Amino acid sequence: MMGGAILEAEIGCSRCGSSLAPPPGAAASAEALRCPWCKAALQIGVFPALFRDQVTQWGEALRREDEASCFYHPDKRAEVVCSMCGRFICSLCDIPMASERLCPVCFERAKRCGRMPGLVGNRVLYDCIALSLAVLPLLIFPFTLITAPLAIFISVFHWKSPSSILPRTKIRFLAAILIAGLQVAGWTAVLIFSLL
Length: 196
Fold this sequence. Notes:
With 196 residues, the protein is α+β, with helices and mostly antiparallel strands. It has 4 helices and 8 strands, in the order E-E-E-E-E-E-E-E-H-H-H-H. A hairpin with a 6-residue loop joins strand 5 and strand 6 (88-89). Helix 2 (126-135) runs parallel beside helix 4 (171-195). The termini are far apart. The relative contact order is 0.08.
C-alpha cells in the first residue's frame, strides 16, 4: 500500500511464472531477490509511476504568461522549433529525425511525400519481379520470348537498387539472369534452326 492506494499489479517470476509481490514502496533495487518457488535469483525493478495516484502528461506546463507555448498544446511550454514549418512545439510533439526536429504534421507530410529517405516503410523487390518474370512464363512457354529479356533487363538495371528493408542477397537476380539467359539462348537456337 502506498499513499492509500493498493497495488494491484502482479509481477511474475521470469523462470517459473509464479506471482511475486514487489517490496513495499519498491523502486529499482540493485539487490537480487529469490523466487520462493524455483529459487531463481531475480532483480525486481518497479517504476515509481506504478505507485502514483495520478499519471501526469508529458511536456512541461507553462510557468509564466510570457513564455512561448506549443502550437498544438497551448498549455505546454515550447521546447524546440520545428525544422520544416517553424512552429514552436513541446517535448510531447517533438520528433527528432537525424539532425532535424519535426512536429507531428510535418513528420506525416514528409513521410507521405517520401522526403525522408531514412524512414522507409516498404520497397519494390526488383529481384522477386525479375525471378518471377523468368520462371512463371515457363508455364506458357511462348511468353518467355518477351519476359526473358525483360527479366535480364530488370536484373541488370536494378542490381544496385535498394533491396528489402531486411538484408537480402543477390541470389534472386543471379537466378533470374541464369534462367532468362537459358530461355533467350533457347529462343535464339530455335530462330537459327528455323531459318536454316
